[in-house]
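Bug #77: duplicate submission created two jobs. Keeping one. Sequence:
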Amino acid sequence: MNEIYVTGHRNPDTDSIVASIAYAHLRNALGDREYKAVRIGAINDETQKLLDRFGFEAPPLVKNMRTQVRDLEFDRPPILNRSVTMDLAWRTLRDGSYTSVPIANEDETLYGMLSTGDIASYDVETMYRNRIDEVPLFNLLSVLEGTLVNEFSTQVSTVSGSLFIALPQNYEDPALTNPDSVLVCGNQPEIIERAIAAGVRCLIICRSDIRREWSETAPDVCIISTPLSARRVSRMLYQAVPVERVISDPHDIVAFHLSDYLDDVSETLAKTRYRSYPVLDEKEHVVGMLSRFHLLRPRRKRVVLVDHNEAAQSVPGLEQVEILEIIDHHRLADIQTGQPIHVRNEPVGSTNTILTAMYSEYGIVPPPKIAGLMAGAILSDTVLFKSPTCTKRDIAMAERLARIANIDLEELGKSLFSFSGWDKDAEGLFLTDYKEFHISGQDLAVSQITCADSGKILERRDEFLEVMRKLQERRGFDLVLLMVTDVLQEGTHLLFVGSSEVVQQAFSVVPKEQHCFLPGVMSRKKQIIPMLTALWG
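Kept job's structure:
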């Protein structure tokens, strides 16, 4: 995990989305290729309109920033196929100093786990065996470092039989001529020829010259020549079996996925006692191994916050991330960090105004399409420069960006604020630009719809009030507000659910039927929240 996520606030507006795109582009242009713009909420119609105009896709959605398995420095041992030999599995564990390795099916999905303990137990058990069954011929040749003497005549693919070592003193032993034997012998031509004549299914010749006539045998006989000693062969035969036969219960495996959260993994680990656990990706393919050690110092996601600095407005799981930087134009709130970070907070109308200055400071000219996006975001957040949050700097930066993008700000602004969300239900419209606040013990929610024709929105007033009442009951808010901001009237129609006395005292108006008009009020951040903050102390 190398990405540094750049994200705006929940229920993102145009300034928030564009700021994440613009800042990620700036840092990547400077050579920091790890920055990635993301979002933590749905794209509203205005933002989508701007993205479409300049040919951008919406940043990918991230539901939360909780630490996941993919964020951990887990082990990535070799992943062995279920058909490999026990010998290869042991050498893999030994050479890599692993205590266990995952075993995969042909499609790379998990078959089971093989540990050094499994191998040791199997090896001890073979001391009491003298038989192998259906061991693949390829496995035998590999383990014994052997060659197939009768390569052109045999049709054997697997080897079965009781193991028997030919010694001089047991020359007359019937096992030497038993077809169900796996006969191991040395430089003993007479015994070899007797075994071939008797049709012994498998003959392993150790450290001996090979006669040409031995290569012509019946198709159901195989003769292997090996440089190993008879004693070694007698042990290595058992290491030729596929590992899949040693795994006791391949289905009783506790595994984790890259998307699993650290909290859930820790809970599972507390209930189990395995040394290590396989890690799977979204296709169920095995990608690594996880142990308790890896949870001691988890590597957290790295995040840059733009256009906000309040925990309630940020991504869920923020307490588990490493915040690297904050770029914002709102009041300072409650986010805490574990170490000093870069914070850039300026009293301007748009985060993209700050980012335009940063492009200039770094000597990077934003591409025309990025410049167009940023100009549109400034127009959006300053409500065509009519918001009280708008500064001369916002106007100057927007004009500079417009020249780079070769666009007309007035035309762009009109297209942004031409309302197009009539097909949405009242709840969908209400949640498009929605934020929650906690002020002096009071909980409130404030939504804003900015348009050039508030009359059509107000025709659905009863629908909005019903949505707001349900939200208040469900979440226990003291006050729920809907700002219908009209850029032509240069004011806001305020619908509210809660105390009408609070609205009257905060805004010096006399509301009627849960509605009032606030002339000159265009900004939630600078005109609505500060008045309520002053009222509640």
